[in-house]
Write a structure and sequence with these properties.
187 residues; alpha+beta; Structural Genomics Hypothetical 15.5 Kd Protein In mrcA-pckA Intergenic Region, Chain A; 8-stranded mixed β-sheet; 4 helices; globular
């Protein structure tokens, strides 16, 4: 008897405009609704979920419609699945987080796989570098932060150190902790 299998996507999520690159490689069910993809991205990247977001698919925007904030044209992300937009390897869409700082992510479909039905998903396979701190001023503010933190004698170092968590290491990424959070919160 054949073991039941489910269709999953291997995605590479890259924070655009940041050097050196910050990215995560995830396994996620192809049938996952976009609101749950959002949750997985937040955890895998290290964001706090305290800002607005949207998926941009060829100029159509998916997120949480809210006429009070001018988002009445936004399509409801809960009604759409990842497989409706990513069908073949190398297909990609955009994910934007924090419209003030403007964090843009490219979500690329690297592989379509079939895994045992009991495989825990979503799952992070690999990643590089720490997520930038929230409210740091986007790509430019983050570049400034890295420049200041790299110079122990920089006159603004103390001010910038107050903006980040103690022990912040821009090169760090904890795969085990990321998966523990994904398994705990994305079920």
């Amino acid at each position: 008897m054949t073991e039941p299998r489910k269709k999953v996507y291997q995605l590479k999520i890259t924070l655009t405009g940041v050097r050196p690159p910050i990215w995560r490689r995830l396994l996620i069910a192809s049938s996952t609704p976009l609101n749950q993809v959002h949750q997985a991205i937040q955890i895998a990247m290290g964001w706090t979920g305290s800002h607005l977001h949207q998926f941009d698919v060829n100029g159509d925007y998916f997120g949480i419609p809210d006429p009070n904030f001018g988002f009445d044209e936004m399509l409801d992300e809960r009604r759409y699945k990842l497989s409706q937009f990513l069908k073949s390897e190398k297909d990609w869409i955009h994910y934007d987080y924090d419209f003030g700082d403007g964090w843009h992510h490219k979500i690329a479909l690297e592989k379509v796989l079939f895994v045992p039905a009991d495989t825990p998903l979503p799952q992070c396979l690999k990643g590089k570098r720490a997520c930038p701190p929230e409210d740091i001023g986007g790509v430019w503010g983050y570049a400034q932060l890295l420049e200041v933190l790299a110079d122990p004698a920089h006159p603004e170092r103390e001010n910038y150190e107050e903006m980040v968590a103690e022990g912040f290491d821009p090169d760090a990424f904890d795969l085990d902790e990321t998966n523990a959070q994904l398994f705990a919160y994305c079920r």
